Amino acid sequence: MKMGIGTAQFGMDYGVANRNGKASAEEISSILKFACENRIEYIDTACLYGDSETALGLALPECHPFRIITKTPHFATSQINVGDAAKLRSTFTESLIRLRQKSIYALLLHNANDLLKPGGEILFNEMLDLKKSRKVLKIGVSVYTGRQIDAISDRFEIDIIQLPINIFDQRLLKSGHLERLKSKGIEIHSRSAFLQGLLLLTGEKLPIYLSEYQQILDNYHARLKQLGISSLQAALWFLSGIREIDCVICGVESCCQLEELYSLSSSPGVFVDYSEFAVDDERLVDPSLWKKN
Length: 293
Prior knowledge:
41% of the residues lie in helices and 14% in strands. It is an alpha/beta fold. It has an 8-stranded parallel β-barrel with strand order 1-2-3-4-5-6-7-8, surrounded by 4 helices. Helix 4 packs across helix 6. The longest helix has 18 residues, at 82-99. The chain is globular, with a radius of gyration of 19 Å. The chain starts with a strand and ends in an 8-residue tail after the last helix.
């Protein structure tokens, strides 16, 4: 399994299981050092991840092997116009400055719906221009649903896509979207491997806004105990068995976490029929729908 580093925790307190807050500068440097030594190439960030880009830029050595991916801001307008395209370019330029890079591997539309608004092609053309000027090697989009994938693939030729998939959220696997994306030669990066850490909460009470799913989580961990595997092993081994995924983005708070993830991702998994763990309730598997207030 090819693993990448998610950096939301570099710039803000992120994840339902996060107990330590955002990573320190020293911890980020240790994470990057370990990643470099173990050929972990991909680093995923975004201008909306607090000061993640700045923290990453300060920690990156001048010569590094990493493939950096960042994302656009959101666009509040109901119809995309040339002003939004200018905002995309200026924000991307600011991202390069914060990252201390002349160019990066990929730029993604952070909100797929921005691309699907009237005038969305204006944003895409601006991204194409950044690609032609060699500021980025690949352009694409971050999505939540199969409906977004269908709408975008019908209109735009993207190089790369980031999508959610984990042992609970198997929607895009069961629907055949991963297979169709790969048949078009699109690079696939998965996120939400641990469902913002929810899948790793063993024996803990859920936040009140997720308490109705306590039984599902308890049953899940009980079943894993029967199988003799940990929640971390199950999460990673499920993803490692999906051949269409080119990179699994894993958010980390510390180098110790990264070392553990890397060790498990490099080990042979145990064959289990992971389909039994799929949850169809979008209110649970889509964190954007979690009602935290």
